[in-house]
Amino acid sequence: TITKETGESLTINCVLRDSICALSSTYWLRKKSGSTNEESISTGGRYVETINSGSKSSSLRISDLTVEDGGTYRC
């Protein structure tokens, strides 16, 4: 669990375990607290994705956090 204040930034890392998956086909999902539905996150604006093909990892940086950004993230 990571706790941040509104206005701060957060970087979430994702390492691909399956060599069949391509980094270019990864996507990010968020399940808001108290919800059973996951929503796809569109990158751009406050959501910036960085891909590191050497380490087969991807990261999602969320800047200027709001209460609406709260939840569980996965890639």
UniProtKB/TrEMBL annotation:
Protein's organism: Ginglymostoma cirratum
InterPro entries for this protein: Ig-like_dom (IPR007110), Ig-like_dom_sf (IPR036179), Ig-like_fold (IPR013783), Ig_V-set (IPR013106)
Keywords, sorted A to Z: Receptor
CDD domains with a match to the protein in the record: IgV
Pfam families in the record: V-set
Annotated protein name in UniProt: Antigen receptor
Stretches assigned to the Ig-like domain: 1-75
